[in-house]
Automatic annotation (TrEMBL):
GO terms for molecular function: peptidyl-prolyl cis-trans isomerase activity. Its EC number is 5.2.1.8. Gene3D superfamilies: 3.10.50.40. The lineage of its organism: Bacteria, Pseudomonadati, Pseudomonadota, Gammaproteobacteria, Methylococcales. The gene is nifM. This is peptidylprolyl isomerase. Keywords: Isomerase, Rotamase. Residues 146-248 form the PpiC domain.
Length: 296
């Protein structure tokens, strides 16, 4: 059984906030909603994060960092804005062993940690064109874009409990729509809105740009056989009948180095920033028990 250390009383509020963050991140639930094993895991992560934050705040670089009232208020309002009213907000704080004062203190701590880490990340070396070129050639597969087709569909379900959705009737309905659209494909969005039983009906049946293997196999085969602007015959899948429209075709392509450079630069920049932060944190002294930072 894992033993969770009890922090000093002055650390309790900050640790409660860390526990809330860990629970939401790991399980998308508040600590009060967690099973015992989940809670134990969240506590471990919260305590580990708290220890790292304490090392960051005890570093010389943190001494000159000042969090303004505006920054703090903005962080507070971001959380407060998730609630419909003050009562629900305060109630949730209480359930997580927090109040407005302790939340503000925890946010101040978090803002300061984030600012220090941002300062450290800014020291990361710039990414050179040579490094970008090497990455491009070593990861060429990442810059190959498969053929994609912008698709729309009208869906009629099969449900023998409803006369209009028996297999025979649903097929006739779909065939009637396909017949109309072969003559007037420009009416696809209007007919999808009026007749399709898919939630995409509200957007005119738009499925978006899809690559091979995204849709049901039957739909996939038909969509990638259509010409641009062409409407299919009725296609049956395991869930019902469909009429497809291929709005446009985006042919497969491999991005050139010039086009891929912004993406590569951003990716390598973020990696360099994180590496710089991790190396800096690894070099920080570990405070002895009772020496955690309690700045306000």
């Amino acid at each position: 059984m894992t033993v969770i250390e009890k922090p000093a009383q002055l650390e309790t509020d900050n640790l409660s906030y860390n526990l809330l963050r860990a629970a939401l991140l790991l399980f998308k639930k508040s600590p009060a909603e967690l099973a015992e094993a989940e809670l134990n895991k969240a506590k471990i992560q919260a305590l580990n994060e708290f220890r790292i934050e304490s090392r960051v705040l005890n570093a010389p670089e943190a001494a000159a960092v000042i969090i303004t009232e505006q920054e703090l208020r903005q962080a507070y309002q971001e959380i407060r804005g998730r609630y419909d009213n003050e009562s629900a907000f305060l109630g949730d704080l209480e359930k997580n062993r927090l109040d407005t004062a302790s939340l503000m203190a925890a946010l101040h701590r978090q803002c300061k940690v984030n600012t220090v880490l941002e300062l450290i990340a800014s020291l990361a070396p710039a990414i050179s064109e040579v490094e970008i070129g090497i990455y491009y050639h070593l990861h060429a597969d990442q810059f190959h874009l498969p053929e994609r087709r912008e698709a729309c569909h009208i869906f009629i379900s099969i449900n023998p409990d409803y006369p209009e959705n028996t297999c025979e009737t649903a097929l006739l309905r779909a065939q009637e729509l396909a017949g109309k659209l072969h003559k007037k494909p420009y009416k696809f969005a209007d007919l999808a809105l009026r007749h399709s039983e898919c939630p995409t009906a509200l957007q005119g049946g738009v499925l978006g740009a899809v690559s091979r293997g995204t849709l049901y196999p039957e739909l996939d085969a038909v969509l990638f056989s259509l010409k641009q602007g062409e409407v299919s015959n009725v296609v049956k899948s395991e869930i019902g009948f469909h009429v497809l429209l291929c709005k446009s075709i985006q042919k497969a392509e491999t991005l050139s180095l010039a086009k891929a450079t912004p993406k590569i630069r951003q990716l390598m920049k973020e990696r360099a920033r994180h590496t710089c932060q991790r190396a800096w944190i690894a070099g920080l002294p570990i405070p002895e028990s009772g020496e955690n930072n309690h700045e306000q």
